[in-house]
Design a protein that fits this description.
alpha/beta; Aldehyde Dehydrogenase, Chain A, domain 1; two-stranded antiparallel ribbon; 8 helices; 17% strand
Length: 210
């Protein structure tokens, strides 16, 4: 299933932000342009997020963390969805690579190689989703039972640079998401010079539940 479209010459795309499961514009209505480095022309328009948008994203993330279904899933269920997402990344790797190359100007050969191996991060950490363990700790008191339990603590933000946005996002996201951390509780801020592959990547999880 391919859910990412190849950029068309002369086309100007208009992207939105994904906040609370909805695609939205900046509350101010402000946007900025993304320039295709090969042509020097505008190829996409992005919402220019401000403090109010960040606050809305953090509130949505906190709500998802506290009340969403992901944290109540078993590790086996989370692993299944992670593998489905990895499959979607494989199916859309070529088109995602074209979007990244159009956005940041890196060679399609390099971006293609990165995107074709991207799914491996999600397959690998999906395998860890049901293997997160604590431990019991000996005590000097016979009536004490001491143990550790690993669990997520809240919302985190991830900032990625311009040169390999989806690969570097995966370095942060793939380990965090399956190990009980809620996907909506991980907020990502892309670099202004290469923001456009992020919304394309964000559109894939909706398909992973089908």
């Amino acid at each position: 299933m391919q859910v990412v479209e190849t950029p068309v010459a002369g086309e100007v795309r208009h992207y939105q932000m994904l906040i609370g499961g909805a695609w939205v514009n900046a509350q101010s209505g402000r946007t900025f342009e993304s320039i295709n480095p090969y042509t020097g022309k505008v190829w996409a328009v992005m919402p220019e997020a401000a403090e109010a948008d960040v606050d809305a994203a953090v509130r949505a993330a906190r709500s998802a963390f506290d009340e969403g279904p992901w944290g109540r899933m078993t590790g086996t269920e989370r692993a299944r969805l992670m593998r489905r997402l990895a499959t979607l990344l494989d199916e859309n790797a070529e088109l995602l690579a074209i979007v990244e190359s159009t956005d940041n100007g890196k060679l399609i050969r390099e971006m293609g190689g990165q995107l074709k191996s991207l799914s491996e991060w999600y397959y690998y950490f999906a395998g860890a989703a049901d293997k997160l363990e604590g431990e019991t700790i000996p005590s000097d008191k016979p009536n004490f039972f001491v143990y550790t339990r690993r669990e997520p603590i809240g919302v985190v933000g991830a900032i990625t640079p311009w040169n390999s946005p989806l690969l570097l996002l995966s370095f942060k996201l793939a380990p965090a998401v399956p190990l009980s951390s809620n996907p909506p509780s991980t907020r990502r801020r892309p670099h202004l010079n290469s923001p456009d592959s992020s919304p394309k990547r964000a559109s894939l999880p909706a398909s992973s539940t089908s």
